[in-house]
Specification:
The complex is a heterodimer of chains A (329) and B (211). Helix content of chain A is 22%, strand content 21%. By secondary structure, chain A is an alpha+beta fold. In chain A, strand 2 (117-122) and strand 3 form a beta hairpin. The longest helix of chain A has 17 residues, at 13-29. The relative contact order of chain A is 0.16. Chain B is globular, with a radius of gyration of 20 Å. Chain B is mainly alpha-helical and 211 residues long. Chain B has 11 helices and no strands. Chain B has one domain (3-199). The A-B interface holds A 3, 5, 23-24, 26-27, 30, 32-33, 36, 41-42, 44-45, 47-48, 51-52, 54-55, 86-87, 90-91, 95, 99, 101-102, 154, 197, 199-200, 270, 286, 288-291, 296, 298-299, 301-303 and B 17-18, 20-22, 24-25, 27-38, 41-42, 93-95, 97, 102, 105-106, 109-112, 163, 165-167. The structure holds protoporphyrin IX containing FE (HEM). The site of protoporphyrin IX containing FE has 21 residues of chain B, from helix 3, helix 4, helix 6 and helix 9.
């Protein structure tokens, strides 16, 4: 099968993706799949029964985005490496829509994203409750093909569509006291039923230092794979910080607050020994549960080495000059 | 005896169904975006379930007097070992690409791997010494060695509890079942005879008569 040694992030992805796509086609057209279901064999394994339901569940209502400009090459990796859309939209961590990887796609229909507005608060000269369309209007949408590295040691490559966060923040004139940016996800247990359980303390919160927020890599994404974001991926607007573990990239944002103090962040609050505020991808600092030295790119069988700052060291390592990244993990 | 043999064969065949499900799922892409995770979870859960079934045999024999179940304890125990071995092999192959130094690091640094590994080591020892030859050779110490199965169960449940990030319901259900199985053995520790269906029924009959 696909058991190969991989040396660098640039090799080996093309074939694995093609195999993967072919496999899906096979599944769709295959009578074997149907007869298997008829025999009822997959039902014997609860896990697979769930997969089945996911595959058949209605797709989230996404619509194509137009006038998207391709990213400058330094902000994108080759198209051939993109993770198939089905995996990127059916293997998600979004506890507000359920704690298993398949739950979010299944429960995404609860989330209503129109109308949507974002509160911009705190150390800005022009605070306000801004409708999503108004927030986006002044800026061209860009496509960025980024690596996504989850703290659980798996990764994907995703073509996001969005606007650099810095451009959006500047529009509201941050004051000199704005040293951090705090983000909040929608809190509404009707739309995000996972919030009925106390998996984490809701609403989900994240934060960045202002220089991290202003870095041109940091994206406010509103789409992926050419379409608006599906619910399970954080519709209608989410953060994408590609050099940090995925949990920093907060989904379904309703509040952006600029402030002087370092904000509280959800996973750090849940377990500060395991999840730091910075959460920069770092193969040398292992998590108590997962070695971070390697990762499995979704679609591969074996793991590949993880790169410092998820491969974005040239762009962002300077932000942390002089910091002890073992302590500030 | 031949009846038990047939029963054991059927048990083995039935226990292969989850494995068959995994193989078919793999061939048709039904294991989802992360097949390795699906395989790790399925094999781990079946190892634990089979371990629990193994330890259920003796209470059932004692309580209901179903001594015909006796031969199945070994069958189920070996099937548990089979799934645990698949589970470990999946981890070693796909997560570690057989890098033994990484395995040692994982065992040393990650508590849930440490306990899982010790549980597996116990299961290995019990599987190896499950043959008639070893039972003879070890004599009385065989029994003492095979009491380690309870430790293997506790370690496996702790393994599950520690690897879960937030949603502890499922491992807690297993923990409750494991506790019940261990509690059943408590009277033996104090030299009492275990509860049986017969002793339970006697007062019940009296009550019926007086009514
Ligand atoms: C050789 C030592 C072992 C290793 C290296 C190991 C490794 C693992 C790994 C990596 C996971 C997945 C963790 C995750 O998803 O984050 C896991 C899950 C699990 N393992 Fe093990 N394991 C071992 C032994 C065992 C044994 C002996 C049992 C049971 C008898 C067991 C039962 C389980 C269960 C029940 C799960 C959870 C499955 C689920 O989430 O549905 N493991 N193990």
């Amino acid at each position: 099968m696909l058991i190969k040694k991989t040396q660098s992030i640039r090799e080996n992805e093309v074939t694995s993706q093609e195999d993967y796509l072919r496999r899906r086609d096979f599944l769709k057209s295959s009578a074997i799949a149907g007869s298997m279901a008829a025999v009822g064999l997959p039902l014997l394994s609860s896990c697979m029964a769930e997969q089945e339901a996911t595959a058949e569940s209605s797709p989230s209502p996404v619509s194509p985005l137009s006038n998207v400009i391709p990213a400058p090459p330094q902000y994108s990796i080759a198209k051939s490496k993109i993770t198939p859309e089905w995996e990127a939209t059916h293997y998600n961590n979004f506890y507000e829509l359920g704690t298993s990887k398949e739950d979010p796609a299944r429960n995404a229909h609860f989330l209503k994203t129109k109308p949507w507005s974002v509160a911009i608060e705190g150390e800005v000269e022009k605070p306000g409750q801004v409708p999503l369309e108004t927030l986006l209007r002044p800026h061209p949408l860009e496509e960025r093909i980024y690596r996504l590295r989850c703290v659980e040691a798996w990764s994907m490559v995703i073509p996001w569509i969005g606007i650099p966060l810095g451009q959006v923040l500047k529009q509201f004139n941050p004051t000199s006291k704005a040293r951090y940016v705090a983000f909040e996800t929608l809190y509404d247990p009707k739309q995000l039923p996972g919030q009925k359980t106390r998996a984490l303390s809701w609403p989900y919160r994240e934060g960045l230092r202002i220089d991290e927020a202003m870095n041109p890599l940091t994206l406010l994404a509103v789409g992926m794979y050419g379409n608006t974001l599906p619910g399970q991926n954080g519709a209608p607007i989410r953060l994408v910080v590609p050099w940090k573990y995925g949990f920093k990239s907060i989904k379904s944002i309703v509040k952006i607050r600029l402030q002087e103090d370092q904000p509280m962040t959800s996973w750090n609050d849940e377990n500060s020994r395991e999840y730091g505020f910075y959460a920069n991808v770092n193969p040398e600092v292992s998590h108590p549960r997962w070695s971070q030295a390697r990762e499995r790119r979704i679609g591969d069988w074996t793991k590949r080495p993880t790169l410092p700052f998820n491969g974005y060291a040239d762009e962002v390592a300077g932000l942390y000059a002089g910091m002890d990244l073992r302590r500030s993990f | 005896m031949p009846r038990a043999k047939t029963g054991q064969m059927i048990t083995v065949l039935v226990a292969m169904i989850p494995l068959l499900g995994l193989v078919l799922g793999l061939l048709t892409g039904r294991l989802g975006a992360e097949p390795v995770e699906a395989i790790t979870h399925e094999t781990g859960e079946w190892a634990l379930r089979l371990l629990i079934l193994t330890l259920l045999i003796t209470p059932l024999r004692q309580f209901f007097g179903w001594n015909a179940l006796a031969p199945y304890r070994r069958t189920l125990g070996l099937l548990c070992f089979f799934y645990a071995a698949l589970h470990f092999a999946t981890f070693l192959t796909f997560d570690l690409s057989w890098r033994i130094d990484d395995l040692l690091t994982e065992i040393r640094e990650r508590p849930y791997i440490t306990v899982g590994f010790f549980s597996f080591m116990i299961l290995c020892a019990l599987a190896i010494t499950s043959t008639r030859g070893w039972i003879k050779r070890l004599g009385r110490s065989w029994l003492r060695l095979h009491r380690l199965v309870y430790l293997a169960l506790v370690l496996a449940v702790v393994h599950f509890l520690w690897l879960v990030k937030v949603d502890r319901l499922e491992p807690l259900v297993y923990a409750a079942i494991a506790s019940a199985l261990l509690a059943w053995r408590l009277p033996l520790l104090f030299g009492r005879r275990p509860l049986t269906y017969a002793t339970l029924r006697r007062p019940g009959e009296k009550a019926q008569k007086s009514a």
